[in-house]
Amino acid sequence: MNKILMGCLVEMILLFISMVSNNINIFLNGSKLIVIGCLVIAMIISGVFNKDNLHSTRYESSEDRDTRLHHVSTLLFLGIPSLLSLFMLYVFIR
User: Fold this and answer.
1) What is the pTM of this model?
2) How far apart are the first and last CA of the chain?
3) 38 with 79: CB under 8 angstroms?
4) Angle at 78 between CA 44 and CA 41, to 5 degrees
5) Contact of 78 with 37, CB cutoff 8 Å
6) How do the domains of the chain map onto residue ranges?
7) Is 58 exposed, middle or buried (CB count within 10 Å of its CB: 0-12, 13-18, 19+)?
8) Are 76 and 42 in contact (CB under 8 A)?
9) How far apart are CA 9 and CA 13, in angstroms?
C-alpha cells in the first residue's frame, strides 16, 4: 500500500508544480514519463524483452525470482497513480 501512496505523492507534487507555474504540460509530460519509465523498466527486469526467457529463468533460485518480481510489482504500483491521473485527465477534462 505504501507504493501506491508514494506514487500518489509524486503525482500531487507534479500537480502542485504545474499549478504554480500555470503550465499543464509539466503535469502531462511528467506523468507520461513516469508511466512509460515504470512500464519499460518493469518489463526489462521481468524479462519480457529477453529472447530466451526459459533459459535465463531455469538457473535462478526462487529467492532471486521473488526479489525480481518484488521489484517489478513495486514499479508497477508506482506507475498506477500516474496512469489513472492521465486517464482521468484525458477522459473527463479534455
Assistant:
1) 0.79
2) 30
3) yes
4) 10
5) no
6) 2-93
7) exposed
8) yes
9) 6
DSSP-assigned letter for residue 60? S
What's the CA angle centered on 39, arms 74 and 15, to 5 degrees? Answer: 80
- Choose among 75, 66, 85: nearest CA to 3: 75
For residue 17, give the amino acid letter.
Answer: I
Instruction: Note the Cα 4 to chain centre separation in Å.
Output: 10
Angle between helical axes of 62-88 and 24-46 (0-180°, round to 10):
160
pLDDT (tens place) for every residue of the chain, 94 residues total: 688 888 888 889 988 999 999 988 888 899 999 999 998 888 888 777 766 665 566 677 778 778 888 888 888 888 998 988 889 888 888 6
